[in-house]
């Protein structure tokens, strides 16, 4: 049995229903940002996945989530905008993220995001044996196989959702 005490309650509720094995990694909340976490705890950036929330800029607010590897950059202005079928988009503010998900920056995860919010997953994420994701708060991370996205009804795997970051 995995200890879910350090995980956000809505995330714990979701994780208790999945068939994919996972591990909760307890961390210092000051090191929840991906680069800091990977450097301090020895996890590779190419297996750390960021969950980003995107919002429409015009008309009624429309949101989507996106999961991309930390070594890539989300193609917000082309791929995500087209997927959302809106004219302009931007990253959601910390306040919008908190209102939509109940999660703070550094802890946002696809687990527990409202089911009506589309969740786009870059295909590169699915190529990993395992990934590190947020836990809904800044006290822990979740190590899990990307196959978990097959258990999320609002998740869609998208080719070239992100672009490789050049060093």
Notes on the structure:
With 167 residues, the chain is of the alpha+beta class. It has one domain: YbaK protein. It is built from five helices and ten strands; from the N terminus they run αβαβββαβαβαββββ. It has helices at residues 9-15, 34-41, 76-84, 94-101, 123-126; strands at residues 22-26, 49-56, 63-69, 72-74, 89-91, 119-122, 131-134, 140-144, 155-158, 162-164. The strands form three sheets. The protein has a five-stranded mixed beta sheet. A hairpin with a 6-residue loop joins strand 2 (49-56) and strand 3 (63-69). The termini are far apart.
Oligomeric form of this entry? Answer: single chain
Major sheet characteristics = 5 strands, mixed
Strands ordered across the widest β-sheet = 5-2-3-6-9
Uncertain runs are none
State the CATH architecture.
Alpha-Beta Complex
Q: Beta-strand level of the residues, as a percent range? A: 25-35%
CATH topology: YbaK protein
Topology summary:
Blueprint: H1 9-15, E1 22-26, H2 34-41, E2 49-56, E3 63-69, E4 72-74, H3 76-84, E5 89-91, H4 94-101, E6 119-122, H5 123-126, E7 131-134, E8 140-144, E9 155-158, E10 162-164
Parallel strand pairs: 3-6, 6-9
Antiparallel strand pairs: 1-8, 2-3, 2-5, 4-10, 7-8
Q: What's a concise summary of this model?
A:
This protein is of the alpha+beta class and 167 residues long.
Keywords:
alpha+beta; globular; five-stranded mixed β-sheet; 22% helix; YbaK protein
């Amino acid at each position: 049995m995995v200890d879910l005490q350090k995980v956000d309650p809505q995330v714990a509720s979701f994780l208790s229903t999945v068939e994919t094995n996972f591990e909760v990694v307890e961390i210092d909340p000051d090191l929840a940002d991906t680069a800091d976490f990977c450097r301090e705890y020895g996890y590779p950036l190419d297996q750390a996945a960021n969950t980003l929330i995107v919002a429409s800029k015009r008309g009624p607010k429309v949101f989507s989530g996106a999961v991309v590897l930390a070594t890539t950059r989300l193609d917000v202005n082309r791929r995500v905008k087209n997927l959302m079928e809106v004219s302009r988009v931007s990253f959601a503010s910390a306040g919008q993220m908190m209102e939509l998900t109940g999660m703070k920056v550094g802890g946002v995860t696809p687990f527990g995001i409202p089911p009506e919010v589309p969740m786009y997953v870059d295909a590169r994420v699915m190529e990993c044996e395992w990934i590190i994701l947020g836990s809904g708060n800044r006290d822990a991370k979740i190590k899990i196989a990307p196959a978990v996205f097959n258990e999320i009804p609002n998740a869609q795997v998208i080719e070239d959702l992100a672009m490789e970051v050049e060093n």
